[in-house]
Amino acid sequence: MAINGATELYGIMGNPVSHSLSPAMHNSAFAALGLNKAYLPFVVQDVAQAMTGFRALGIKGVSVTIPHKQAVMQYLDSIDPVAEKIGAVNTLLIDQGAIHGANTDWLGANRALSEKIPLKGASVLLLGAGGSARAIGFGLLEAGASITIASRTPEKGQGLAALLGCPWLPLADAAGATGNILVNATSLGMAPQQEQLPIVSEALINFKVVMDIVYAPLETRLLQAAKQAGCQTIDGLAMLLYQGAAQFELWTGRQAPVAVMRQSLLTSLGYNP
Ligand code: NDP
C-alpha cells in the first residue's frame, strides 16, 4: 500500500495488540477498494492521552480492544444507544475532533446468526457471562430473540441475566435447556482448553443452530459434535469478520469486501499457505 500525504489513518488501541488480526484484515479491505487509508496497531496504556492524541492527529477511526472497551466511554462526545446498553465500545469514529463510540461485536454476532436462522422470535441458550456474552445478549434482544444465560459463576451470570431480563442457569445444568440456537461465549474449547466442551454433546440435538465464538481452533470440539448431531454450525470467524465489516462500513460508508477480509483472517490464523 502506498502511503502519501493524503493517507487517512485508522488503528486499534489495546494492550497488548501484537496478536490482533485487525490490522491485516482492515488493510486488506482498504487495499481491495483502492482507498487511501492505513490501519495501525496502537499499544495504549493511558486512555485519556490516547484519545487526546487521536483528536490532535486527525485519526479517523479506531478499534478498541481489551482492556479499554469500558474505559474509553468517559471520553466520548456521543455514543450509539446499543453500545451504551452493553456498556462497552469497540469502535471509535472521529470526525473533526468529535469522537463517537459504537459497538459492532453484537452486529457481528447477529449477522453471523441471521445467515442461518431468523432471530426475531428465536430462543437462544447463551453460554457464558463475560464481555462477549454481554454484547451478544444485548444484540439478540435488539433482534427480538429470547435468551437464557448459562454460566459458571453464579453472581456474574445472575448479574448479566438481570440486566438482560432473562433466566439464568448454572452451566452444569445447561444440558436440560432447549432452544433454536446455542451460542458458546465461554472460552472453553479455545486452545489450550481445546478438548473441553461447554455443554455435553448429547444436549446438542435440542438446537437447530450452534455458534461457537471461539476461533482458535476454528473447528472446535463443540462444532464437531454439533455437526454430528445434525445442527447447522457457525464458527468464530464469522463474528470476528462481521464485527470488522461493520467497523469498515461505519468508517468508509462503503460495503465491506467480506471475501477479502475473510481470506485475510484465514491467512493470519494459518489456514492458508
Ligand atoms: P471473558 O473473560 O469476558 O469471559 C469468559 C467467559 O468464559 C466467562 O463467562 C467465564 O466464566 C467462562 N469460562 C472461562 N473458563 C471457563 C471454564 N473453565 N468453565 C466454565 N466457564 C468458563 O472473555 P470474552 O467474553 O472476551 O471471550 C470469550 C471467548 O470468546 C474467548 O475464547 C475469546 O477468544 C472469544 N472471542 C471471540 C470473538 C469473535 O469475534 N469470534 C470476540 C471476542 C472474544 P465465568 O462467568 O465463570 O467467569
UniProtKB/TrEMBL annotation:
Pfam families: SDH_C, Shikimate_dh_N. InterPro entries: Aminoacid_DH-like_N_sf, NAD(P)-bd_dom_sf, SDH_C, Shikimate_DH, Shikimate_DH-bd_N, Shikimate_DH_fam. Shikimate binds at S20, L21, S22, T65, N90, D105, Y215, Q243. It catalyses: shikimate + NADP(+) = 3-dehydroshikimate + NADPH + H(+). The active site is at K69. GO terms for biological process: amino acid biosynthetic process; aromatic amino acid family biosynthetic process; chorismate biosynthetic process; shikimate metabolic process. It comes from the Bacteria. Its EC number is 1.1.1.25. NADP(+) binds at G128, A129, G130, G131, S132, I213, G236. The keyword Oxidoreductase applies. Pathway: Metabolic intermediate biosynthesis; chorismate biosynthesis; chorismate from D-erythrose 4-phosphate and phosphoenolpyruvate: step 4/7. Residues 12-92 form the Shikimate dehydrogenase substrate binding N-terminal domain. GO terms for molecular function: NADP binding; shikimate 3-dehydrogenase (NADP+) activity. Residues 236-266 form the SDH C-terminal domain. Transmembrane segments: none annotated. Belongs to the shikimate dehydrogenase family. HAMAP family: Shikimate_DH_AroE. Homodimer. Involved in the biosynthesis of the chorismate, which leads to the biosynthesis of aromatic amino acids. Catalyzes the reversible NADPH linked reduction of 3-dehydroshikimate (DHSA) to yield shikimate (SA). This is Shikimate dehydrogenase (NADP(+)). The gene is aroE.
